[in-house]
Design brief:
Blueprint (H helix, E strand, L loop, with lengths): L2 E4 L9 H13 L8 H5 L6 H12 L5 H18 L5 H12 L4 E5 L3 H11 L7 E4 L11 H10 L6 E5 L2 H9 L3 E4 L10 H4 L3 E2 L9 H9 L7
Parallel strand pairs: 1-2, 1-4, 2-3, 4-5, 5-6
Length: 227
């Protein structure tokens, strides 16, 4: 049985601008200025907890990590409920796989509340049998925990799973889990990352070059399956 595990942010939906703004707001509340988009991109693919742990240390923030997490999640949920866009070709892929009965999961570094809010707001929630947040496993990406837990909940052999990812830590986690990977770099400059070079299917131009039909054929292991 083939199963597909999707990352959420930057892969299924263009939520990174909202995550950046949520992070900027929470850091500003503790007197941190100058946190820009370029710095934010350094953490794409890294879980929210791990990101805030690093920023807390970098900026010498005394507040407890849980306080920072709660603040960022609150800001993010406010923004996500207002607007989150699904990448059109990703929606096509999800709809086609669902129509064919392919089991699917979302495995993300976001909180479960954020995952559920985004999927509900974009109309995607009915397509996924399983949701896994990095909060529910011992380690976030690049460790394979979220993907292995998704496979376990789907009742699928990891070797039969395909991961769809936008960031090198996620592609590295897929490789560590023993899963094939479709890589769609959110940040074009990362297309040459070693983790992406190991992907079974790479769209180096990111979402602008991603084609649902090619990814679908790769998932099923045969050319022309989309037709």
């Amino acid at each position: 049985m083939t199963a597909v595990v999707f990352d959420l942010d930057g892969t299924l939906v263009d939520s990174e601008p909202n995550y950046y703004e949520a992070g900027r707001r929470v850091l500003a509340a503790y007197g941190v200025t100058g946190f820009d988009w370029e710095r934010h991109t350094d953490f794409i693919g890294i879980g929210t907890r791990e990101t805030l742990q690093a920023l807390k240390a970098e900026y010498g923030i005394d507040a407890p990590l849980e306080e920072l997490l709660a603040g960022k999640n609150r800001h993010y949920l406010e923004l996500a409920r207002a607007t989150t866009e699904v990448f059109p070709e990703m929606r096509l892929l999800v709809e086609r796989l669902h129509a064919d009965g392919v089991p699917m999961a979302v495995a993300s570094g976001s909180s479960r509340a954020a995952i559920e809010a985004v999927l509900a707001g974009t109309g995607l929630s009915g397509y996924f049998r399983v949701l896994v947040s990095a909060e529910e496993v011992p380690h976030g990406k690049p460790e394979p925990d979220v993907f292995l837990e998704a496979a376990r909940r789907l009742g699928a052999d990891p070797a039969e799973c395909v991961v769809v990812e936008d960031a090198p830590p996620g592609a590295e986690a897929a490789h560590a889990a023993g899963m094939r990977c479709v890589a769609v770099p959110y940040v074009p400059a990362t297309a040459d990352a070693p983790a992406f070079r190991r992907a079974g299917l790479l769209f180096p131009g990111g979402q602008s070059t991603f084609r649902a039909s090619e990814a679908y054929d790769f998932v099923l292991g045969r050319a022309g399956a989309w037709g």
